[in-house]
Amino acid sequence: MEYTEVLTDKDVEYICKAISGKVLKKQFAAFSKEFSKIKPGFRPYSMSDKEAVDLAIKNFNKRFISGYIDIMLKKWIAEIQVNIEKLEQNNINHEDAVALTLIDSYFVDNVQLYFKLIGEEKESSYLLNVCNKIIGFMQNKINRYDRETKKNNDYDEAIKKNEKLSVKIKNLEKDKSDNDKVIKELIKDKNDVGSQLSEYKNKLEKLEEEYKKNEKELKNLRERANHEIVVDKEKIKSKEYDFISLCEVLAPDYKGIEMIERYADLTESGEFEVFYCDESESRQYANRNKLYLNDGPRDIGTMGIWMWKATQNIKNRDKDFISSKFVKELNPIEILFFHQKDEKGMINILKDGFEKNGLPNLGMYSVYVEKGKYIGFLCNVYDFEKIGNKYKLKSSVITLNKYEFGENDFFKLVNDRSFFYKMELGIPREVISIIDKMELIKNIIIDRNSWSLFKKAGKTKKEEWRFLKNFLQELNTDSICSEIAEKLNCSLTIAEEKLKDFISIANDYINGTTISDNLIKEVILSDEKILLRFKNVIHEEWEAENKIIIQSKQNEIENMDIKLSEAKKELLFIKNDKKKCEKELSEFKDKLELKEQLAEDVENAVTNRIKNAQTKAADFIAEMAFVNAPVKSSYDSDHEETIAKKELIFDNNDAIIGMQLKEELNEDWIMTLDSIEYELMEAGVIDRLARPVAAYLYANYLNKSNLLLAGPNAEAIAQAFSCAVVGQPGRKLIYRKSIGNNEYKSQIRKGEIIIIDDPFNSEWINKLPSIMSDTEAFYMGVHPFIEDLQIEPKSYFNYMIPLFTDCIVDKKPRTIFMCSQKIEDFNEFELDYKNNNKNILKEFHLPVLTKLHIQISIANMHIMLEDDNEDFDILFAILPYAYSTMQMPRLFKILKDDDKKKINISKMMMKYITEIYGEFDE
Fold this sequence. Notes:
Elements: H1 9-19, H2 21-30, H3 32-38, H4 49-58, H5 63-89, H6 94-103, H7 111-117, H8 124-149, H9 155-226, E1 243-249, E2 259-266, E3 272-274, E4 290-292, E5 303-312, E6 320-326, E7 334-337, H10 343-352, E8 354-355, E9 362-370, E10 373-380, E11 384-387, E12 390-393, E13 399-406, E14 410-412, E15 418-420, E16 430-433, H11 437-448, H12 451-456, H13 464-471, H14 477-488, H15 492-511, H16 515-525, H17 528-545, H18 547-615, H19 617-626, H20 634-644, E17 648-650, E18 658-668, H21 669-682, H22 687-702, E19 707-710, H23 714-726, E20 731-735, H24 741-745, E21 753-757, H25 768-772, E22 778-783, E23 801-804, E24 816-827, H26 848-865, H27 871-884, H28 888-896, H29 907-917
Parallel strand pairs: 7-9, 18-24, 19-22, 19-23, 20-21, 21-22
Antiparallel strand pairs: 1-2, 1-5, 2-3, 2-4, 5-6, 7-15, 8-12, 9-10, 10-13, 11-12, 13-16, 14-15, 17-20
Helix pairs in contact: 1-4, 2-4, 5-6, 6-8, 11-14, 14-15, 17-18, 18-19, 21-22, 21-23, 22-26
């Protein structure tokens, strides 16, 4: 038996506090993976003891927590029972042994819980007796302590005090005797009143229970009645047409004639009768099984209701003439069967998605539960959304209408499709909520308070607790209650109560106060002696338990002092070295200024000499013919070398960003992806696109697929990405008079992000391929205008893949980003090089290397996002490349080709791209 199976929420809270947050944090550290799932972004020892206790209480259902508590309970109870047996062997009766043992146990403040765990439910009188014994034994210990302290006092004075105490005791005993008589009489009266009260209370409870049951049934019935399907009887009658039939749209025949096939006729009572064609009669008039399609949908396989009549053909009296009209107001209920064990599995299928060629307007999504019995959920086609090849329920669907039916309630057609005989199914058996109400309320509140809005509040670490405490109370509850009422299909009063419950739960969690805490506090503070004793005991036990840790921390402090002393010496050495370097730099600048002045003087002298030579050319030529060839000075050599070396340097002097160190360390790639997402929003990226953009950038970074960001906020996005991934702003590479290429490459650090400024500079564009061949770094070019990419060499994209920012940003960037640090054993994402087949890329002219980079980055982006939404393939990779290489007409043709669909892009994304780039103009 596991003790945790019988624990209530209050019991769990008591035990977790008894174990203490310090011990629980050790358990969290031992199960770090499970801990990261319930508290992502945090380390166990970074929490306070109270936070650890609250986290254990909240996640008690997790196996690594409940299992540990069960082990601790077994250990405590085993120790208690061993001690009780020892005391009983020393001729102490059982109750006294229990009381003496529980004094020093974790159950001293909750005796009832101990008996509950050992399976011995005791009456209140027995528990009261044990508690009195515990108090008595504790008082005896205190008295013994008092007697020992009084040994050094004067004996005669002690005797006098003892005599006075004896008189007081006799008086108290007399008063006690009188009070006992009064108490017995009061207990008798209480028992009489109690029995009557108990009787009335039982009657009241039964009435309340019956009232609640009736109220619940009435509410359920009303809710079900609101979902009843009612068909207007007038719609199934027609004076103009003879028949109302269930038909299916057929493929056009070889002549191109469109027809529908008749399967069943609708009677005036609103039920279908399956139609059977009489093979011995001519297939005309009422015996027709195929009708001409005059009106309604043309999609092959569509089933619906048509009104029709057959009259004599004027041109040929041996034939009939068909008139038909599609009745869109009548929707037959089609049954779709799924192979699932129960209704829960069916609901999961609808929520997770399923593959179908098409859905009916009104469908019963059903499972077979037992012999002759089915359970189904009635859904409208507009309740679903198509993602890829799957249909799944929209997030706005809160409830499902459940029906039960049998084999005699429906008919199956020769085309293997099944329909209900009746157009009306009545009220549903049950209205099932598929989303937790509190979860729904939480999502509504979160949707209204995004990350950006939260950070704009400008709160600091020191006042976060005060901000969080008042955060929920300051929400605009009027509109929230309206939205909750609409989605939960309830009144505004109930919606307000649900919101108050949610805010109350959140406040309890934020405050961390409980009734038991206050009760224990009052008991301890009521007696100074008990308070002093508890303080001493706790202090001594704490020192004893943590003696090794205290000594270890003391040693660490001493080691840190030694290291600090060494660091101070090293800092002094560095400062002296810095002064020396500054002095050398100053001398170098003086020499450089002298050489520059000398160069200017020489240039002026040469200019004057040439002017004189123009007036006296003969003299100048004669003179120069006999002048010795000038000797090249060391200055001239240095100057020519400097001119020849218009090379590359790093420059962050004009950086537009600041940085702030993130307190928590990232433990794995998921936490890093979170950091990238948040910082991209700070750089101006649209909130809903921040996660996909983060995954695409991170996949390119890991694959060393250099990127060219073109458009607004390009440099801010690059800097935000660098801060989130490597914990520092990216260094900008610019073109100036400086050191050579070899010197530049020696400054590269493994894994860092380098931002290339002005990548289309004509003086150094040819140097970029050799620069980016360095696989130690990740390069991100930035350029403000996407139109310039069309006039640059297409081969440029072998080295940097374009990404447009004008379609992913909606605001100006901030100037300060959070720098994220990684732990030593960081769990990095492993690239998948196999799942990289993108058929659409075959339709474009692009080099093999570029194609391979795009395929790998897109495939791993989908793995990180855990979805297959191809909207982002177009937006991030394919569209920028097609635009830059002037292949937009080809992309437009592919996306508009419905017959040979190479990629699935949503209508929303198609509209979004068209709004930005027009109809895919070149």
